[in-house]
Structures are given as structure tokens and as C-alpha cells.
Model the fold of this input.
Amino acid sequence: MIFKIAFKNLLHRPLRSLTSWLLLTCASGMLALLLLVQAQAGHQFEDNVAGIDMVLGAKGSPLQLILSTVYHADAPTGNIRLQEAQRWMQHPMVRMAIPLALGDSYNGFRIVGSTPAYILHYGGQMASGRLFKSSMEVVVGSIVAQRNHLHIGSRFNGMHGLGAAGHVHEGQPYTVTGILSPADNVLDQLVITAVNSVWDIHAHHDDDDGDEAPAHDTSRQITAVLLQFRSPMAQLQFPRWINEQTNMQAAVPAIEVNRLLSLMGSGIQLLRIIGWLLMALAVSSIFFMLLQSLEERRYELALLRSMGAQRVQLLSLLLLEAAFLGLAGIISGYLLSRGILGIIQPGLAQQFHYTMRHWWQPGYAEGGLALLTWFICLAAGLLPGIRAFRLNISKTLAHV
Amino acid sequence: MLQTTGLEYQYGKRKLRFPALYCGAGEVLLITGSSGAGKTTLLHLLAGLLLPQSGEVRIADTVTTRLPAAEMDRFRGAHTGIIYQQPHFIAALQVRDNLLLAGRLARKPVTPEAVNRITHALGIHHLLQQYPARLSQGEQQRVSIARALLPAPPLILADEPTASLDDHNCTAVAELLAEQAGEQQAALVIVTHDSRLKEVFANRIHIGEG
Done:
């Protein structure tokens, strides 16, 4: 019965309840969204950087170098000469060196000229077909294949650049020889081919308008090299050697990612403060709503007591109203955060090759947030509840 | 059914002394007195909403003045139906739920037949789906009588039940109240300064000066 009264009371004053509910929805939705984005971003950033100690590339912004070669989310800084890079790739302190030749794309998905070691490094597994063997053969990531309906044997033309409107390399189609199973990292969104393919395409391209470097063996160019060292010593020495002795640049992903996350972090921090302010607003609106309705319902509460309701029942009546509102706000906030993510998700995937995994599932942190929100709501109901508990029924009933 | 001895209650410096009262099952006791004589205080003492400084209230062989607060609430719910001068309801609930509420809180479930019988007798059966705020004063007072009667308590207390009603409604409501209480063999105590009721009920006690 107390349950029913609490519920009906909220519906009886719909405007007031609606205000509190909307505020709570916005607050918990925003905080949930931030938690989610942060967790996903951290995940994604760390997964993709795993095992890459250093990236060797052309001079420019180190962050841009990392973004373009590790996350495929920016334009490359430029090209380096393969010959020059090889000196470092074959260094005894280097355990693994994967060359990357970037520059082309297919329907917004980047074409990466590399070696099978690249696929291996990101834990790629063939879902069907085989690895590329000769020039112009490609292996495509699971999302690329799915979005473009590619099968083994499909042929497509690459496009210069990463934008939507670039120059199409006509007459030199790629052939799909393999499709990867989902790897849950950047691999899913890439077209991988041999470095040779990129060279061949641009060699031909050069004959047309010559805006790329000539394709002579001695001056062959790549975009970058992903390096893994044998010892942490190299981690310290290599960047210095390379930045001092060559006109190439060495960037350490861990450092750049940290810098990026701290940049993002301060933005997220600000949003989080706004979120908690909203939450405070929502909770005080619940508090004042209950307090006000308590004043208006003094007589009702006294009446309940005179009909045999216990003090505890009055306390729980007000707590229940706060609890109902809290629960409604948490649930709709959750739905709101998922709705917003659902809307921005395709854009993120397209622009930043950023796919979210299991994004509809509530995480632990979100569970904690929900619980915390609920407790704050209950706390907001506590004081009005205690006032109801201590209500002097005789006085209230006598003074109509 | 209801018996009091030596009830005293102190408001600051003012001490109210009440005469001994007795009201048997199926009887009506009218307590009259001018305003300020302590009529409402007496009613609250009888209902256990207030504790007297001395004296005791005995309802159906229980001395209620000695019950702890939580038990008093429970006892009141099960044994006492109260009708107030201004009828008040849980505004968010329909008349039907308001009527069922008393029984639920007293853990004495009220059957739909009982609701049917009493609302028909009081002429409010067509108002069950309404919200209390939409009812007229006379209708509201009848609903609050139904609410007090429904859990079939052995004691019914009425505080100026007719003060806000016109002459026609006044007699009708008072007679309905007495009739229904009599049917349930409940002791009915009415506290009032309404002289119109003195003509209806013979058994009365006057409190206050004189």
C-alpha cells in the first residue's frame, strides 16, 4: 500500500516529478557516457599501441606520427627512405621491425602497405582465404569486408588520400585474397597489402604526373617503421640517436598516447565536473520536491498515522518516492547515454577508426555510478522522511 | 467499550480536566462544549494521538494510555475509526483506494462486498473512481464516514463531523453515522459544539466551564 501511495504521489504532481526526473536523467546519462567513452578510449588506445616501442617516421609532430601510423586517424607526416630506415631496422637491439607504406584508402578505409608481420602483430586470424603473396593482393579487416560486401576474389580500386573525394587509381585494382576475423583492434578497419603494391601503384602513378618520389630501388620510400626492442636500454637510446643522427624522427607511442589522454582527460574532467554539478542540482531538486510535498501533505501523513500507519511507514513512504525517482532517472540516464553513443558511433568509426565493443553493456564503473546515484537520492529523501517520522500528528490534525 | 477515568492534559499552564466517560457497544455519546473547552484534545486522548498527564483510557479491555507508541498506532488502526471536521484524503488516490487504505493499514482486509454495502448505504457508490478533490463537502464527509466504518472498528470517534455541512446534510450525515455505527455495534463518540446535533442524540456530556 505504501508502495502504491508513493508511486501515485509522484504521478499526482507530474510537473514537479518530471523536473527532478529530467535533471537526474541528464546527470546520470552524462556521467555514464563519460565513463563509457573514457573506458572505451583507454582500452582502444592501449590495445593498439601494445608491443610497439617506437615508431620511426618523417619529421613532424610526434603525436601526428603516432596517430597516423598506429591509429590510422591522421595524415602521415611524410615519407622516409627505406634505405635509411633499414639501417635501424636491422639493428641488433631491434627485435621486430614492421615497415608501413600509407597514403591510399578504399571507401574511407586505409590501405596499409606492410608485411604479414603486421597482421601477426595485431593478432589477426584469417577468417577465409590466404595472405597476400604478390603485388596488388590484399587482406581486408572484418569491418572493411562487411561494410563493402567484399569476398575472396573481389576487386576494387584504391583512392589517393584518406578523404572522401580523392584521386582514384583507376586501372590498377586490388584483389581480395583473404578476409580477417574480427580482431577487436585497428586491424578490423584496414586493408593490408604488400609494401610492393603501394610502390607499384605509385610507380605507375608517377609516370602520369610525377608528384610522388621515383620508384628506383635505392630511393624507395616508406611512411614509417613500427619497432619493438629487445631491451629497455634501446628504448632510451634509440630516440636520441635517431633524432640526432638522421633527418628522421622517432616517436614513442606510450609518451604520445599519454599526452593525448591527458589532453582529452582535462576535457573529460571538465565535463565530469559539469555532470556532477547537474547531479547535485538533480538531487537537490528531489530534496526540495519532497520537502515541499511533505509540507503540503502533513495532514495526509497524520491521517495515515491515525489510521494505524507506523512512523517507519511514513519514513519509508518518502524514501520510496526518492527511490522511485532515482531508479527512473538512472534507467533513463542509461538509455540516454546509449542513445547518444548509438548516434555518434558510426561517425566515430568512420572518422577515427574507433569501434566500441559491447558498448550497450553496463560496466562495473557504471554499476557503481548507478548505485552511488541511487544512494544520493535516498539520502535526499532521508531528511524529509525523518521529518515525516517525527511529525506531531495531534497538532497537525488539530490545526487544519 | 470505551471508559475513561480522571483524564488530565496540560497545555503549558492550562490544565484540562475531563469527566469520566462511558460509552457501550452500539451506543452514541455526544460530547458538547464551547470552542476552546478541549473537545479536540479529549478526542485525541481517546484516540491515543495524545498521551494524558494522568488518568487512563480503556478501550475493549485494553488500557491504551499504557501502550508504547508503535503498538498504539497498530491498536488505533484496528480499534478506532476517526472522522474529522475537515475531511482529508490521500489526494493521489481514488476514493476506492482511500476507503481500502484504512483496512490495509490496520491489517484488517476489507472485502469488496463491505465497500459495496457501506457506499450504497451512504449514497457514494458512484464516486468510487473519483479523486477526493472533485467531491462536494457533503460527499467528502460521507466518504470519510465510510472510511472510518469500513475496518469495522469497535470505537468510532467523530470530531465536529457536521460543522461544515448545511442543515439538510447535517441531519442526514449524523443519522447515517449513528445508523451505521449501530449496525456494526460500535461505540460512537461525537465531539461537537453543533447545537443541531443535540436534537438528534439524547446521551450527552458537556465539558468546559459550567
